[in-house]
Amino acid sequence: FKQKTAYEIIAGDWSSDVCSSDLFPSHDIRGLWTSISGHLRVLMMSNVTNYLDPAEIAAYNLRERQAGTAAQRGLFKLANRKSETTQDFGLAQDRANRNWAESYRRFPSTFARRNILRSGIYQGARQQSNLDFQNALADLQRQYERTMGGYGEQAGDIELQRNMALEAIAAERNARQSQLAAQLRDYRDWE
């Protein structure tokens, strides 16, 4: 059983009014029938929860889908940027490891020319090189985490914008429903 919208009930009632006028030629009977059919329509409409016509429903549904699609598109682009950032971070780490390994490989020969391989200067310089490398990797990691955190905030903003758009559409739909319900009450009071 499909519940009819108010638009469908009224449109159906109009067609029944036309048919009923053909059945009752007398003005008094026609007036009685119009009054009865109006009361029946109001009685039927009192159970209706959706007063919008199908075109309005389709328009609101389209706007909701568009808001969802725009958010999905934004989140997809953001996911691609996150993936690219992760790849770039991995490449930067590899490059830093290769540079450190190359400099570390050349390190003894630099000090060998100066004949200080066994001295404290060499050991201190080697430790400082390791420390510099670890600091560079930590800076790289912090930069990566900051960037990814920014992406998380952007994703939250996209979700918030989508939810706000959906709430605005729902509020507009509810206002229109209330307006149509008020018109129905006015019609019922008029009869």
Largest sheet: none
Q: What is the quaternary state of this protein?
A: single chain
Taken from the alpha-carbon principal axes, the silhouette is: rod-shaped
How many runs of DSSP E, i.e. beta strands? 0
End-to-end separation in angstroms reads 29 Å
Mean pLDDT: 76
Helix-strand makeup class: mainly alpha
Q: Unreliable stretches, pLDDT < 50, 5 or more residues?
A: 13-18, 20-24
Strand content: under 5%
Q: Report the helical percentage.
A: over 70%
Helix-strand pattern, N to C? Answer: HHHH
Number of helical stretches of at least 4 residues: 4
**If you compute it from the alpha carbons, what radius of gyration comes out, rounded to the nearest whole angstrom?**
37 Å
List keywords for this structure.
single chain; mainly alpha; 191 residues; rod-shaped
Would you kindly provide a written description of the structure presented here, covering whatever features stand out?
With 191 residues, the protein is an all-alpha fold. Helices cover 87% and strands 0% of the residues. The radius of gyration is 37 Å and the shape is rod-shaped.
Quick summary of this structure?
The protein is built from 4 helices and no strands.
SSE topology sketch:
Blueprint: H1 6-23, H2 27-45, H3 54-112, H4 120-190
